[in-house]
């Protein structure tokens, strides 16, 4: 039979099949283009969303970053605002001299490190609040008038947490010694005073800068804020940490006993109590009150573990970043469960390789005063415009929980002893306000030269202030941390 011609139905089926194959091929070709289109659409909306977020939430932080050069341009349009204390004293202001804006510091050296300076890269609050000081919140009419007159607009005022009376009292009490003082409110974290010596006059920062860059001045530490950057052996203030570890391992402050003869040997390390004083039979409270070196060496050797002490020090923020926006050196503790026993006796009494900053020591005591909770230390209360209206306020925040309420309570009870009958009783036993605290003496060379510490707080029923003091070379004239802390407490209570 001869081949039959294609029917219309057959040709239609072939056409539809061909069309279907063509469409499938086109889909495969177009798929990457579709995917790419969706990617670009998502990227567009992502960028658009970030721009909205940046303008609404992040722009100020970026512009306020101390490394942002845009801030230098802002100084051409805005007169740098004032920095004032919480009690209304002007700590820094801009005045016109010879047709130029000049930064003036009415208190000179007293607030030098904490307030800082506005040249050579800036420092202190002048650095951390640079953006706010160069921002204006004048009302719109005042800004228009300034523009028409060709004047700079008035920058905002930074209201600090600092108290001029306490700062001045601490500065004077230190006399000519090197060292530092930090005063905190334990329930808020507000820094009421931060003094570092030796100081410098920020009004003469050009001369200071020139001096430290000479051969004679290159080793100078006048610009170092010892309160946050100075690392010291904590001396007997570290016995607070050792005591906390004893409480954690034994669950109680009772049941401990040691017979102190004024000196003893532990792992071939000779430990001597201050002035070879024999404290006799001491429990844990008397060990703290008399700051008995041999008793604490015994605790370190026989009553606690070094692995546990290492954990406790890190709970208290040793070897960690300190939660303080102004920048603070890490305190260090090097022992652990593998350390040799010869290192233990000196370490548990605050000698050895342990180091701490005055601010960190204040923070540990602040947590004790605040039921174990550390509030983040801060220096700025609010921002006001030139007319005095509040623009922004800064609130306290919790930094960490360093210990339990029970541990803080037990430590506070033990730390009554130094002021009542122990190493600080000569100053505080009859003081009109009860003081909780711990003294410390840290030798730093074989000749017996030492630094003197005091860290403590007032009014234990409702703590008012924490004071942390370190006085370098206290053996030169007998000035102690207790002397300086006493002057601060006197200034606080009228």
Note down, in words, how this protein is organized.
- The protein is an alpha+beta fold.
- The chain has helices at residues 8-64, 70-74, 112-115, 124-128, 130-133, 140-149, 164-173, 205-212, 226-229, 239-250, 284-289, 293-302, 306-315, 344-348, 358-369, 405-414, 417-420, 425-428, 481-492; strands at residues 78-79, 83-84, 90-97, 100-104, 153-154, 157-160, 179-184, 191-197, 258-260, 263-266, 269-272, 280-282, 373-375, 380-384, 390-393, 398-401, 435-443, 450-458, 466-471.
- The strands form six sheets. It has a six-stranded mixed β-sheet, with no helix packed on it. A five-stranded antiparallel β-sheet has the order 8-7-19-18-17.
- Strand 14 (380-384) and strand 15 form a beta hairpin.
- The longest helix is centred in the first third of the chain and has 57 residues, at 8-64.
- It starts with 7 loop residues before the first helix and ends with a helix.
Summarize the structure.
With 494 residues, the protein is an alpha+beta fold. It has helices at residues 8-64, 70-74, 112-115, 124-128, 130-133, 140-149, 164-173, 205-212, 226-229, 239-250, 284-289, 293-302, 306-315, 344-348, 358-369, 405-414, 417-420, 425-428, 481-492; strands spanning 78-79, 83-84, 90-97, 100-104, 153-154, 157-160, 179-184, 191-197, 258-260, 263-266, 269-272, 280-282, 373-375, 380-384, 390-393, 398-401, 435-443, 450-458, 466-471.
């Amino acid at each position: 039979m001869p081949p039959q011609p294609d029917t219309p139905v057959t040709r239609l089926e072939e056409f539809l099949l061909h069309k279907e194959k063509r469409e499938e091929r086109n889909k495969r070709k177009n798929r990457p283009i579709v995917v790419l289109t969706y990617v670009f659409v998502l990227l567009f909306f992502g960028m658009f969303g970030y721009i909205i977020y940046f303008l609404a939430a992040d722009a100020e932080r970026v512009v306020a970053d101390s490394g942002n050069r845009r801030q230098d341009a802002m100084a051409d349009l805005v007169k740098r605002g004032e920095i004032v204390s919480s009690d209304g004293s002007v700590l820094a202001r801009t005045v016109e001299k010879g047709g130029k804006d000049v930064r003036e510091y009415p208190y000179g050296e007293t607030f030098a490190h904490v307030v800082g300076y506005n040249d050579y890269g800036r420092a202190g609050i002048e650095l951390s609040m640079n953006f706010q000081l160069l921002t204006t919140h004048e009302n719109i009419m005042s800004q228009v008038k300034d523009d028409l007159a060709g004047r700079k607009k008035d920058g905002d005022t930074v209201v600090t947490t600092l108290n001029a009376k306490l700062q001045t009292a601490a500065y004077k009490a230190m006399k000519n010694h090197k060292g530092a003082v930090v005063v905190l409110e334990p329930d808020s974290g507000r820094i009421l005073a931060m003094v570092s010596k030796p100081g410098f006059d920020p009004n003469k920062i050009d001369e200071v800068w020139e001096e430290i860059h000479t051969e004679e001045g290159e080793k100078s530490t006048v610009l170092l804020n010892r309160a946050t950057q100075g690392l010291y052996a904590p001396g007997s203030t570290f016995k607070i940490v050792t005591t906390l570890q004893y409480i954690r391992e034994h669950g109680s402050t009772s049941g401990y006993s040691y017979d102190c003869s004024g000196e003893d040997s532990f792992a071939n390390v000779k430990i001597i109590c201050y002035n070879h004083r024999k404290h006799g039979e001491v429990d844990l409270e008397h060990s703290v009150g008399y700051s008995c070196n041999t008793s604490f060496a015994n605790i370190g050797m026989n009553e606690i573990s070094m692995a546990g002490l290492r954990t406790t020090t890190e709970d208290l923020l040793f070897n960690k970043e300190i939660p303080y926006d102004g920048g603070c050196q890490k305190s260090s503790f090097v022992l652990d469960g593998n350390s040799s026993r010869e290192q233990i006796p000196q370490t548990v009494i605050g000698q050895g390789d342990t180091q701490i900053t005055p601010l960190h020591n204040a923070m540990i005591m602040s947590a004790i005063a605040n039921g174990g909770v550390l509030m983040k230390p801060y220096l700025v209360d609010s921002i006001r415009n030139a007319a005095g209206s509040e623009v922004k306020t800064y609130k306290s925040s919790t930094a960490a929980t360093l210990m339990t309420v029970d541990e803080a309570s037990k430590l506070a009870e033990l730390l009554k002893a130094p002021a009542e009958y122990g190493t600080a009783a000569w100053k505080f036993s009859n003081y009109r306000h009860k003081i909780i605290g711990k003294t410390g003496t840290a030798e730093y060379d074989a000749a017996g030269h030492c630094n003197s510490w005091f860290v403590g707080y007032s009014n234990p029923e409702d703590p008012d202030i924490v004071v942390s003091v370190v006085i370098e070379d206290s053996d030169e004239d007998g000035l102690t941390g207790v002397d300086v802390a006493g002057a601060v407490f006197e200034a606080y209570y009228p």
